[in-house]
Amino acid sequence: MSSKVPVAVVISGRGSNFVALAEAAEAADYPAEIVAVISDRADAVGLARAAERGIATHVVLRRDHPTRAAFDDALDAAIRASGAEHVCLAGFMRILGPEMVARWEGRMLNIHPSLLPAFKGLDTHQRALDAGAKFHGASVHLVTAELDDGPIVAQAAVPVMPDDDAESLAARVLAVEHPLYVAALAAHLGRSAGRPDATPVFNPPLPR
Asked: At residue 205, does pLDDT exceed 60?
C-alpha cells in the first residue's frame, strides 16, 4: 500500500503546474500521488497531458449546473470519487463558494501569480508593471473564503526588468511557479502530517 498522500489537481487550461507536480510525484520520496485531474473546461490541454500520464481525468462543466453551489457540489463529488485527500488548484479560473471551501479547509492549495497580499485577482503582471514594482512572483496559499487571502505556504520572487512587458514578466514568473508548487505541496503535506521540520518555503532553488 502506497504511503503517498492522494492529491487531485483542478485546472482550467494547459496544466503546466499540474505537470510539474506529476513529474515530482514520480519520485519515490515525494509525499504526494496525483490521482486525478479535474477541469471545468472540456478543451483544457491539461486533461490530455494527464491522460498521457495515465492519470484519471474528469470534466465538470459550469453550464451543466444551475447554480454555483450545484457546480461546487459536482466538483466536490468528483474530487472525493478520485480518493483524493488534498486538492491543488492550478490555473483554475472559478471562485469556489464558502461551503465548498469549508469542506476542504486546510487541505486545498492554490497558486497565484503575485507576491500576495499584493495584486489579488486577475491581470497581476500588468498591474505589477503599472505599480512600478521592483519584484514580482508567485505565492502558494491555503484556500479560504476570501479571494487569494489564505495563509501563505510558499513564495518565490523574480526581479522586474526595465524592458518587461506583461508577457515577458509572466514567463519569468511561470518559470518559478513550477518548482514553487512542488516545494509548497511537499511542505504542506509535511505540516499536515505533523512534521516539525516542514516550514514555509521561500524562493526554492530552480532546476538546472
From this structure: no
Which residues are the active-site residues? 112
- In this predicted structure, the answer to whether residue 98 has a pLDDT above a threshold of 90 is yes
Give the CB-side neighbour count of residue 206, counting CA atoms within 13 A: 10
**9 neighbors 169 (Cβ within 8 angstroms):** no
DSSP letter, residue 69 = H
Binding-site positions: 15-17, 68, 93-96, 110
Residues 89, 111 contacting (CB under 8 angstroms): yes
State which H helix or E strand residue 101 sits in. Answer: helix 98-103
CA 44 to chain centre: 15
Prediction pTM value:
0.91
Q: What local confidence, expressed as pLDDT, does residue 203 receive?
A: 57
* DSSP designation for 163: T
Give the separation between CA 26 and CA 81, rounded to whole angstroms. 22
Give the Cα separation of 34 and 25 in Å (integer). Answer: 7
